[in-house]
Amino acid sequence: MKEHSSATQQRGGLLSPTRIGPAWGLLGVAAFSLTVPLTRITVAGGGMSPLFVACARAVVATVLAATALLVTRQPLPRGGQWLRLGIVAAGVVAGFPLLTTFALTTTSAGHSAVVIALLPAATAVLAVLRTEERPPRAFWGAAAAGAVAAVGFAVFGGGGFGGLHWPDLLLFGAVVAAAAGYAEGGLLARELGPWQTISWALVLSAPPMVVLTGIAVVGRPPTGSPAQWASFAYLGVVSMFLGFLAWYRGLAYGPMAQVSQIQLVQPVLTLGWAALLLGENLTWSTALGALAVIACAGSAVRTRLGYPATDHGSGPARTDSIPLAGRNRAKTAEQAADNGSATQRQSTAAARAVR
């Protein structure tokens, strides 16, 4: 039994290398960290409407995704996978961009970054619900503390005891939408492949995004400075496509809970970009709010990571979503493990015979 367990660990270790998953996840987080500040730049001055920025960038990403799917002749998703792709599309293609873009018309990038810092904990919670895990109470306590910290910052950071303002409500809605898309997309990436998952989600959402883009153009023809158009191009190419290729690849290599911890650095990077690109001042209240939310989110993710998962969603990725080289290494490792186990059994038998 011990020999079998040892072989299994070796196989899982090579199918989900300790560095490959986090490295891809960090690349995705670095790409996403610019999304909020650049969105703030595009909607500044009113040259581009929030509806245009949120929907047109999805259209740009869809062109890239559809081209990649056609060139590589990817097979169509099957059955229930389309419904799951709909969840990804609703969360990360439509929900998060629309909600954050409208919120950023009236709130700062730094304020938004602190509220969005709740995303890792929200992703962990939805991943737990999705995989039917039974984590300890400490997980739920940390997740609840993170939500309280984020709400408290939104209330006090928005002008005292006046309660939550509509941009904060939009941001919290964006967190829930993105968390659902991340959790479902991370699981689906193990079946379809990382870049295929976001590509099919973009294609699925194309009809409504194209229609909404047309409505936005007719209502207010987009104008902007070169910096605003460059920011928009980044949102369409990197934030909506290339960033997800890296992020879902990291989640597919997994474990998902471990890779999701890397997202804790995103609000820190975003605050830095907001100060550098927008000249926003990092106040003590923003810094303390960010630290509180990040600490609670990190505690929730680490508590879940320390709890044995009951579903494959937190385990190593399936070999059909790993590159060919990775599958070859896994096969070699399996053979080596089997050979090592056989040699150990022979040595044990010989020792018994001598005795």
From TrEMBL:
Q: Output compositional bias ranges, type Low complexity.
A: 341-355
Instruction: List residues traversing the bilayer.
Output: 21-39, 51-71, 83-104, 110-129, 138-157, 169-188, 200-219, 231-248
Kindly give the membrane topology term recorded for this protein.
Multi-pass membrane protein
Q: Does the keyword Membrane apply?
A: yes
Alphabetized UniProt keyword annotations = Membrane, Transmembrane, Transmembrane helix
- InterPro entries from the entry? AA-Vitamin_Transporters (IPR050638), EamA_dom (IPR000620), EmrE-like (IPR037185)
Q: Where in the cell is it found?
A: Membrane
Positions of region (Disordered): 328-355
Q: Could you tell me which residue ranges the EamA domain spans?
A: 20-151, 166-295
Instruction: Give the Pfam families listed for this entry.
Output: EamA (PF00892)
Signal peptide location: none
Q: Which family does it belong to?
A: Belongs to the EamA transporter family.
Q: What is the name of this protein? A: DMT family transporter
Species of origin reads Nocardia fusca
Higher taxonomy: Bacteria, Bacillati, Actinomycetota, Actinomycetes, Mycobacteriales
